[in-house]
Design brief:
183 residues; 57% helix
Amino acid sequence: MFSFNALEAFINETVTCCKMTVGGRFAEHEKTFYSVMNDLQKNKASTQNKFEIGRLLLSGSSWNHNQKPYQDFKLLMKVRNELVHRKSEIHEDELIIGTGFPEKTLKDHPRFFTDLQSKNLFNSQDLECSWIDLIQNELFATWCCDTVLQMIQEFLHSIQDVPGSKLKPKMLETFDFTADKAG
């Protein structure tokens, strides 16, 4: 959940960064970005919509929905939504005399679990426990952090270079967590 919250904080902070950077001298697409994103925030638009619209406005192109990091972003969002809007887990199994209860399978967990399994993000031999217990591991946590970093990087590097504009360099300076800022 925290990783998804970091993405939401990032996309919201891009609006503030835009306002502070350009100081009223906007390129046309930056002016549109600031205005539209500000409205999206006020209207409590989804993080997904902000990323979709924000990228389109600043880069002139949309996300490739069939590739990383967008596919991982969507999967991370599904996990987040399932955690936030959690339903109780009820497993009704029939006791089979002489055999016991049947083993749980992936179908006993949220649908997105097949995608998590294809990424080897949990121990698929341990399906008896809650799905929340299954994702409490280092591999899953690392994947979440990597997904956030990749989304931010792709967003930042997709911004159009506009002569005289300070927006892209300022956003890279502020939000590029992979850049060496010691030098």
